[in-house]
Each structure stands twice: as C-alpha cells, then as structure tokens.
Amino acid sequence: MLAVELAVGESEAMLPARSAQAIGIEPGHVLGLSIARRALDARRRGRRSLLKFVYHVDLELSASLRSPALDRALRAGRARIVPPPARFALEDVPSEVRARRVAVVGSGPAGLYAAWCLAANGVAVDLIERGPALRERSRAVSRFTRTRELDPEANLLFGEGGAGTYSDGKLYTRTTHALEAPILETLVEAGAPPEIRFDARAHVGTDRLHRILPALRSRLEAMGVRFHFGTRLEGLVLAQSGETASPRHVRALRTTQGEIPCDAVFLALGHSARDTIAALAAEGLAVEAKPFQIGLRIEHPQALVDAGRYGEARDPARLGHAYYALVAKPRSEGALGVHSFCMCPGGQVVAAVAQPGLLCTNGMSNSRHSSPFANSGLVVTLGPKEYGGDVFDGWRLQERLEAAFFTAGGGDYHVPAQRVPDFLAGRESASLPRGSCKLGQTPARIDALLPETMTAALRDAIRRFDGEIPGYAGEEGLLVGIESRSSGPLRMTRDPVARHSLAFENVYPVGEGAGHAGGIMSAAIDGARSAWAFLGRPD
Ligand SMILES: Cc1cc2nc3c(=O)[nH]c(=O)nc-3n(C[C@H](O)[C@H](O)[C@H](O)COP(=O)(O)OP(=O)(O)OC[C@H]3O[C@@H](n4cnc5c(N)ncnc54)[C@H](O)[C@@H]3O)c2cc1C
Predict the structure, then answer these.
(1) Of 44, 71, 174, 417, which has the fewest CB atoms closer than 10 Å, so is most exposed?
(2) How far is the CA of 114 from the centre of ligand 1 (A)?
(3) 282-335: pLDDT as tens digits
(4) How large a percentage of the chain has pLDDT more than 90?
(5) Is the CB–ligand 1 distance for residue 151 below 6 Å?
(6) Is the peptide bond prior to 482 cis by the omega test (within 30 degrees of 0)?
(7) CATH code of the domain covering residue 505
(8) Relative to the CA of 109, which ligand 1 atom is closest?
(9) Do 120 and 267 fall within a single domain?
(10) What pTM, to 2 d.p., does this model score?
(11) Among 126, 130, 229, 486, residue to substitute to test ligand 1 (most atoms within 8 Å of Cβ)
C-alpha cells in the first residue's frame, strides 16, 4: 500500500503513473492497482483552503521487481506489504463449538455481524429483536412523525437494523481491524456503493440502508439464522448447580415470547435498552461507569459549510457536500473540551427516542445528502467523576436532561431551539431560522437548561469554530437538543481476550450498549470479533 496525492480535477486514471513515479519504477511494472482509501484533504492554511485528494493504493507488482525507491518507501512506512484479506470463516473450529446453539440479542450492527460470523462458521443462531422487521418499523416511525405518538418498541432506536437504520449511514471508524474489509464487502454485495470499500468518508444514507437491510437478512436466513422479531429479552435463566461446571452459566433466555434455550448468548442491546440492562445488572451482569458524550446539535445551511470548507473551489457536484470534524481543547484546568460528532452533510435533525416523555436529538440523511442543511453533534465528554459516584448516575443525568428538553419543547417532541448568537448571549430567540427537523422546533433558553460548565464550554468552542468556518457562530446557526446518546455511560465488563462477561462465562456483551463501540462499523467489528473469540480465535 502506498500514499499518493491528486489535485482536485486530476483524473484517477493518473494513479498508476503517479504511484510508479513515487516508488521509482516504470508505469509498465504496475500489474494491477486498487484504491484502498480516498480522502479529501480540506484543511485550511490560514484563509486558504488547499484542496487535494489523498489516496492509499494497493499495487500489484512482480515479486522479483527491485527498486531502491520502493525499499526506501517501505522502510520509511510510506508503503507497506498488504496482507491477504480476512474472511469470516475460520479453519479448524472445533466441532463441539460449531455444535453450540447461540442466541444473539439485538439486530443492530453488533448483533447482525456477530450472527454473520457465527453462521459463516456453521453455528446455529437465534437472532432476537424486541422491535419489528423493517417494513413495520418504518410504518411506526412515519406514524410517530405524523401523530407524535411514540411506540416504545418500534422507533428510531428499536427494530430491525438497530439505531443506525435511520442515520447518515456513515461507515468510517477509528477502529482498524481485519474484519472491516469483509464487513464492507457484505454491504457492497447487498447494494451499497463500491466506493465504501475505500472512501474515508464512506456513507450509505437511510434510503439505501433500507434496501440493504432486507438483503442482509435474506443472506443470514440462507445461512440458517432464525430471526425472532417482537421478542424482548427480559432475563437470563441460569444453569442449576451440577448441570454445568460453572454456576455462572446461562442455559436459556427469558423473553416476552417464552424461554429460548441457548448454549451461549451475545448481548448486542444498544445503549438505549435501559430497562433490559438494568434487569440484567440486577441479575448479576457486571457493569461499570464509563465516560460518555453529551451536548447539543447545531444546524447551518449546507452552503455556509461548503463555503467555509471549500472556499472558492466549492463544487458539491464534484466534491460532495462539505463535512467537518472540529475540536476545541479545554483552555484551563477543570474546563471541558468540545468536539463535533456525527456530522451529517445535507441531513435532517431527528428525535431518536424510545421512552415517552424524553427527548434526544441526532442526525440522519439520505444517500444524496440532498437537504439544504448541515447538522452535527457538539459534545463534551463527562467522566464518572464529573457526573456522580454511582454506576447508574450517568443514566440519571441523561434522563434528567432529556426530560427537561422534552418539557422545554412543549411536551410533544418539538425540539427546543435557540439561534447561536442568542445561545452565546443567554437570551431566548425572538424568531428561529427554518430548520430540518420534521417534528418542528420551539424557541427555548437551552443555554439555561444545561449545566453551567457545559454551556460555558460550548460557547467558547462555537466562537473558536467560527474561525474555521466563517458564520458558524452567526445568525444562521441554530442549536437544538439534547444530544445525550452519542455514547452510553455504562460498560459491561468482559475478559479482554475471551471477550465473555466477567460475570457469566457464556455471555458475550458486544457493541455500543456494552460500552465497547461507538458507531455502525465499530459495533459491527466488535460483534464479529467476539464471535471469532467464541469460535476460538481471540485476537
Ligand atoms: C439517528 C442516528 C444516527 C446515527 N448515525 C450514525 C452514523 O451515520 N454512523 C455511525 O457510525 N453511527 C451512527 N449512529 C450510531 C449507530 O447507529 C450506533 O453506534 C450503532 O447502531 C450501535 O450498534 P449496536 O448494534 O451496538 O446497537 P443498536 O444499533 O442500538 O442495536 C441494538 C438493538 O437491540 C435491540 N434490543 C434492545 N433491547 C433488547 C431486548 N431486551 N430484547 C431484544 N432486542 C433488544 C434494539 O431494538 C436494537 O435493534 C447513529 C445513531 C442514531 C440514533
């Protein structure tokens, strides 16, 4: 793999020649080339934005080819030998492991890819999901937008595909793992665009996700996975003493549809199944408090962000709509840092809630990023020391703020909103700019709803971000909230190698709800890695 650059406007057809030049060989010696990663570098140098594409390319070269420039690039780390791609299926899985029946709870990315990896190795899987299959779920979501009646079991968080089903479908992650490639391959085979294999800002969008998920389900069913929709896990049935070597062994699940026997269980519950996680913790599942992110969502016209990032070179048709990832480090001891999170170009703000009486915002978009708005979470990280001493204090803080924002919005899922200059000055907005949230927005003093340290950190960060994207702190900016579930405040502790729970030898907590992932791809990888560990290949 080798890094090369192309200026905006230069054709990808130049990549073989540019790559050959970089390692001092003739273009004719490049037997094959594939793009491993493509990123648009939109960083600014002062007021100038020097746009360029940075590629990582995999070159096929003859094993006998010798080039001092290639040797130097390999030694300096500018090039590396690419290992063969990983596959889900492992060799030498013991037959007694293959013969086990596994229950996977949750059909989000962590559950789906745990199930995929297990089934690809011949293990029988029951996939249990409290919400409905996609078609019924979509009807419930449309009904919520129309009537504001929230179905606690079928919403933006619960149902086939999990929390990411209504999202931007961003597929990039800070986790790098060999399983990323085969996971992306399943998505391409199910209808995702092939560029997701290498695009540093790969996204699929809600519309495409809704075509991909049924295709994934068909593949899983063909591999023998049995789906149980509308089936909620309520508790664990432990083996009686003498039945197994260990008393901390689960032999069945207690669900709303009766007992489901299993030899092992994967908990891929997501971070919003507070009822289930509390019930399991009461039954002895080991959980600990962890840092989590909380803040607001900020929205601007997409054109303002495109102008700020691309400058005069802006041409969304060629470059796509601009994205940003901004960080404001704390300026003093005790202050909070702020970073942007889950930025959705051309997206819309949504209320991602499962419990009536609470409000939590997030962002989603379609594959074309076609809305005229750009939105992003702006969050601080709170550690257990900042939010309390008890393991459930993080949840309590989330719920207190989610209830306050629900009430401030009028108690019917309008999102409370404040223009950015009014948030900075601490006054209610006399009027609001047009926003993307289909549930509507209501003027509110959201600066006063947050703890003071958070408001102070957000004000400071927004002023600093205005230096990077002119107009960020201006009249066209709108703040809504609360953005409380970017990550969960609990971690289900597990053995670092065998990856089973520290409390139960055959329970595998995976994904975001277990506190081991923070997005679609990281959750999918976490689920598949734990499946590998279960099959006897810890990594
Ligand atoms: C609106 C929105 C937009 C997002 N956008 C992005 C994005 O663009 N990119 C990105 O990387 N991440 C995004 N995320 C975050 C991403 O969706 C999550 O990180 C990811 O889905 C976590 O995967 P998971 O499998 O761990 O859990 P989840 O996806 O939350 O899945 C958990 C599943 O478990 C089920 N479940 C819960 N309790 C039970 C029970 N008791 N019995 C049976 N089933 C149960 C739930 O119904 C759910 O389907 C977004 C999230 C939201 C809400």
Answers:
(1) 174
(2) 14
(3) 999 999 999 999 999 999 999 999 999 888 766 766 788 899 999 999 998 888
(4) 73
(5) no
(6) yes
(7) 3.50.50.60
(8) 25
(9) yes
(10) 0.92
(11) 130
